[in-house]
Sequence to fold (478 residues):
Amino acid sequence: MKEPLKIIEALYTKWSGSPADNIKPLPESGSYRRYYRITSGHSSLLGVYNNDNRENQAFIYLNHQLLKTGNKVPEVMAADLENHVYLEQDLGDVTLFEHLASLRKNSCSVEEVVEVYKRVIDAMPALQVHAAAGLDYSRCYPRAEFDVQSMMWDMNYFKYCLLKPLKIGFYEQDLEDDFVKIADWLIGSERNSFMFRDFQSRNIMIRNDQLYFIDFQGGRKGPLQYDLASLLFEAKTHLSDSVRSELLNHYVNVFSSSFSWFNPEKFLSYYYGFVYLRLMQAMGAYGFRGYIERKPLFLQSLPYAIETLAWLNKNHPIPLQLASLPEVFDKLISLPRSRQLELQQDLLTVSINSFAFKEGIPQDVSGNGGGFVFDCRCLDNPGRYEAYKELSGCDQKVVEFLSEKPDVQQFTNNCFSMAEQAVEAYQKRGFTHLMISFGCTGGQHRSVYMAEKLAGHLKNKYELNVVLYHQELEKRQR
Fold:
């Protein structure tokens, strides 16, 4: 099979009549699609490779439908679906998420953030209602409608990709019965609009002060509430309770004034049910990317989602008699939140991991590849001694044991020197991410010690984001 870049290059040449000046792969995101920026002269396009052609077909159909009904989405210029690629309008790099981060960095007022969100909400009648006019839902993917089956998929995603990896106990049949009750309740909502499905700040672009919407390939017929829940309860946007309430009221007012059929009371009676459903789906996604695909950067969002879950549980409990889910939520809420942090967007992020070689080397999640992997198995293993067997590289006794060893000191100095050289070069060149991993036999003593040492050293010496993740200790905690 040809390389995606070669296929995209050929499609662009055929479409434009001349070869591109440059084609550059963009960093990977949360999807399996691969994006390439194509530049020629002063213009640019995006090339997209996705080997799921049914998803490609749905995206291109919905793209035409959304454009036809007056929505701002990237125009698809050309496609070669036989080879799984298409070309689309390049909307730049500024997402709503990045725009909000920039506003907050400049100490903006709450009102400024609210006004940006109100602009998004003002565009939602066109997206959710006008787009549905003449839409052939049979061409949507993976289902035509957000039905009971779709809801069960979301909740089982949460069960199998988060609860199971975290080893949170539950009675399988009781939890399944709870899921069925929730789906039977929510299916009573009105579901005649176009549901964007993944309506979050990273899928909203800002270009020339205009809002554009991307990544709608999972769109289908569904309830109004789901997209608003996705927008207002996104884990890392940190909207306060009062701001969420103000924006919910704004949405209700916009739709009430736009559509005579809109029933505010009925809309609100189901709204928080869909917030729970979307939150469970999102936490399932964090678990899948983080624990199953071993991309720990995705786990940064989990503490924020759990914090939101705690607020929901307290202020808007699910109005059903459930056998197992309330206890599951309580167990999640009581988990340690040691990695709750917020990264500064303009700083280099250094991901430092400890791991066991038998479990595999952690994967780079930035899309850049590379980084360092240091093998700590050449150092004396505290785990061989009874006094340290149940301890970890975070415990003072183990720290003292390893710190006194001359070979450990030499190993540490060598690692520090290589890491410093990389950090300084990356900062100078404006790079955004560096990954450094330390492995040993069990991922408990030597690798943890070295990861902790390097994290502390870099934090003290440089201005950067440090994300520290102990793969095996995390499993022990769970």
Observations:
- Residues 264-292 form the longest helix (29 residues).
- The longest strand covers residues 349-356.
- Residues 337-342 have pLDDT under 50 and may be disordered.
- The chain has three domains: 4-89, 96-333, 349-477.
